Amino acid sequence: xxxxxxxxxxxxxxxxxxxxxxxxxxxxxxxxxxxxxxxxxxxxxxxxxxxxxxxxxxxxxxxxxxxxxxxxxxxxxxxxxxxxxxxxxxxxxxxxxxxxxxxxxxxxxxxxxxxxxxxxxxxxxxxxxxxxxxxxxxxxxxxxxxxxxxxxxxxxxxxxxxxxxxxxxxxxxxxxxxxxxxxxxxxxxxxxxxxxxxxxxxxxxxxxxxxxxxxxxxxxxxxxxxxxxxxxxxxxxxxxxxxxxxxxxxxxxxxxxxxxxxxxxxxxxxxxxxxxxxxxxxxxxxxxxxxx
Amino acid sequence: xxxxxxxxxxxxxxxxxxxxxxxxxxxxxxxxxxxxxxxxxxxxxxxxxxxxxxxxxxxxxxxxxxxxxxxxxxxxxxxxxxxxxxxxxxxxxxxxxxxxxxxxxxxxxxxxxxxxxxxxxxxxxxxxxxxxxxxxxxxxxxxxxxxxxxxxxxxxxxxxxxxxxxxxxxxxxxxxxxxxxxxxxxxxxxxxxxxxxxxxxxxxxxxxxxxxxxxxxxxxxxxxxxxxxxxxxxxxxxxxxxxxxxxx
Lengths: 292, 248
Known about the structure:
The complex is a heterodimer. Chain A has helices at about 1-30, 40-55, 60-90, 95-115, 140-160, 165-175, 175-180, 185-210, 220-235, 240-260, 265-280, and strands spanning about 130-135, 135-140. By secondary structure, chain A is mainly α. In chain B, about 35% of the residues lie in helices and about 25% in strands.
């Protein structure tokens, strides 16, 4: 039982990170039909912004985290929208998707060439220790991740549902034509979602890198996990992405321990296939009609 | 003579070699309900889109309350008090009926901070509730707009057009696809808002009965030109109109 609790909690913590990344992924899709296949690399790279700031600017960890957040907002939010999404989306979803795949390769190779191909240790945001909970040993890192992820989700939910800004963003996602006629600055609302996504991936990066180390290939697993979490949860629902992320994290962890560690990488894909066969619109999603 | 709310002067719209609207002029006065009818392809929708800023007319001018709005963007027109309903439904499907109305009634000016910290309903819950009551949507006020029946969504669309207290409302085929009971209800509500608030409408519609019962004055378009103008009775008995439209 103790082992199960341990695995369950660490699965939840990983799942919470997947959920943050999946929520960002889905917000981009909802407001601007951007499917970002570089989302995994977007999670990998903020940790390197921080490491870069520490190494080359010679500053301490926390100021470097601040720089990491700002650089992420500029590059992964603002410039990503302006330089890749805006020019490509006019040509349709497919050219857009291919551009993000190209971007993912570019980011990965850039980190490998200009920083290092070796996994880099990344300082934890809080000191690591273990708590004993009914015989189960739970790391404070995991608890911290769960708390921060929950607070982020609550804040995001408040922003989207409890403020005029959020409602204007929802209106933009649901019907940009009418939103524009009503005078909602649609372009600015879309930019805000890109900035929110950049903030979410930066947070996810700082939470996961102390556990898995910062490595240029981290995006492969994370991007796939976020994509699967969004689909498993239901592509049109923020809470779907959260549920999808948590289910994926826990399933992956339990299956690796109780079924086969070797097939750990296959678990998300199996989960995806099973869910799609059983509920094509995801666990929480609704069937969507689309005019073609 | 009082100033017209809407004044369209010699508006034409050409698409390549096709002249969709050809030198159309008309005025709409406060409190009036003007109907625009015409067979398919007569240029009604193009004219409408020119007035609403969705198309730029090739020539001519459009004035709202004396301000030249030729070529203005839809959101600028919205700010001047021109609102519209849509031929194909355009509501925010995932928001509740009340939230749809609140969004439609809002001034969307202001800084990001205003939007973040200001009241969520922008102080509009009471007027949204009034509108809900007026259009008899109380029983679905908290439902998601996407789950409403087609007729109810049409009512919501109309209600949204009135939320900001507009000077002029352009209704694009409000009766299209609405069943008879709901149609009577919609006509009744539009008439009521016209009488009670002296609201001014321009209506494009295919349903002759609906137009005849709703409008004070009707203009008939054929091949981009106005071929007749008058009261519903005059239009009914105009031989040219019967030839061009009613006869078919």
